[in-house]
Amino acid sequence: MSEADRISSLVYDRYRSLPRRGKPETGLQWTLLAAVLKISEGADGQSVQREVVALGTGSKCIGRSAMSPKGDVLNDSHAEVIARRSCVRYLTEQLSGALRGDHNSIFCPSDQRGKWKLRPGISFIFFSSHTPCGDASIIPMIDSQVQPCPPVKAEQDNRVTNQDSETGGERWSEETGGVRKRLKVSPDDAQTGDGSQAEHETAVERNAESVESDSVQQPDIHRTGAKCVPGGPADPLGPGSGYHSVGLLRVKPGRGEPTLSLSCSDKLARWTIMGFQGALLSHFLQGGLYFRAVVVGKCPYSQQAIERALNRCAHVSSLPEGFSVHPPEIMQSSLEFIHSRTNTRPSLSDAQGRVVPCGAAVSWCAVSRRPLDVTANGYKQGVTKKALGTPQARSLISKVELFHSFLELLATVDDSQLPESLRGKELSSYWDYKQAAEEYQQAWDALRSQVFPLWPRSPRELLLFCRDPPSAPNRSSLASSGQQQS
Ligand SMILES: [Zn+2]
């Protein structure tokens, strides 16, 4: 078994072991899966242990108008992002263990006061059941062994891309059979950037028989539904391989409105410099935490495209101590995710044969309390409308909940043991704590100015939330008052 297959099997096993809540309905829905694995190598260099420590599913993203200034909504519920945020919960608990002197923690003291580092032999691998949306999904047909498809006419493309539904799956179901058919031969992936690649693969398989008779064709590409960020070059939208420009930052499509969330290709590229621990935890860490490898499940895939997309930051210089360029090894598994789009065949009972993306996102991580967290539309799944905005409706991986966990961690640290970046500072909001992570911010400034000048800035007003008051008598009234405290 290849290393990539070993990794994907472990993730699929972990996924299967989770309860049904939030998973797709068989034969009706599909989803995307991503995970973080901890790799522990023995001192002898021989024994290797692989463990899934965080996992995420999901394919949705909310638009600007649904974002919350309280940090209590998940803006981006693509599997990769859910998996990373879940991993932050895991890292926070591991840090907390290290602070209590737990020798089983993945962290051990570094030589800088108040800072921690990974124990020798520990590293991380990122898994995704599919090619990340955005730049990595712009795949020349030839690269995925797909032989010529009929070229796409530009006006058909416009018709497709001007439609605004959140995912390819939904769009398919809204389209008439005729359009759907055209789309199947056009490698469009317009709205998901993720799932509809899988749709295309099916189309490709069907086309395989006619390959030989179709020898003179224009080269074509798989597409992404993520659109170029405003203010920079746009896609030419020409036929075939002239449709997209490559190497550009892209934002995810939302339901009828643009989102402020960058494509997963862009986020993964960013993590090769910034690490995946986020700004808050970087206060406590000697440096960024990086994925040494990225494993992709069986799906349309191009080694060249994904390397291009993820290694866009390879030449960044002038990074502060603790941060450096970490291009991951990228490999593909031959094993397919059970709930991928191609594995989801319409059930006979469903007369229309519609297959749609699952609306829920599952977050799981290896923590002692409440490891599972299922959301829909950015809030805990199943909360009533009335409860929206209350702490009960929040996901455990929302900004505000991760912030609270960070503050709880901070509260256990003796002043003399605080890292330099947190000593003697008057910080209150989420924004304050993120900005105070100086090295992290310096790294981000370097990356932004050298590679990603068009990366949209998060609106500051959405990051100014603070901690909940220590003993709010009535938490739901707090939410409706806009949480105006300290
Ligand atoms: Zn994505």
UniProtKB/TrEMBL annotation:
Cofactor requirements of the protein: 1D-myo-inositol hexakisphosphate
Record's family? Answer: Belongs to the ADAT1 family.
Q: Which GO terms describe its molecular function?
A: metal ion binding; RNA binding; tRNA-specific adenosine-37 deaminase activity
Its function? Specifically deaminates adenosine-37 to inosine in tRNA-Ala.
Q: May I ask which residue range the UniProt record assigns to the signal sequence?
A: none
Q: Which reaction does it catalyse?
A: adenosine(37) in tRNA(Ala) + H2O + H(+) = inosine(37) in tRNA(Ala) + NH4(+)
Q: Which UniProt keywords apply?
A: Hydrolase, Metal-binding, tRNA processing, Zinc
Q: Where is this region: Disordered?
A: 147-241
Q: Which GO BP terms sit in this record?
A: tRNA processing
Q: Which PANTHER family match?
A: TRNA-SPECIFIC ADENOSINE DEAMINASE 1
- Composition bias of kind Basic and acidic residues appears in 168-178, 197-209
Enzyme superclass (EC) = hydrolase
- EC number, as in UniProt: 3.5.4.34
Organism expressing this protein natively: Pygocentrus nattereri (Red-bellied piranha)
- Domain of life per record: Eukaryota
Enumerate the InterPro entries for this protein. A_deamin (IPR002466)
Domain (A to I editase) spans 54-465
> PROSITE patterns given for it?
A_DEAMIN_EDITASE (PS50141)
The name this protein carries in UniProt is tRNA-specific adenosine deaminase 1
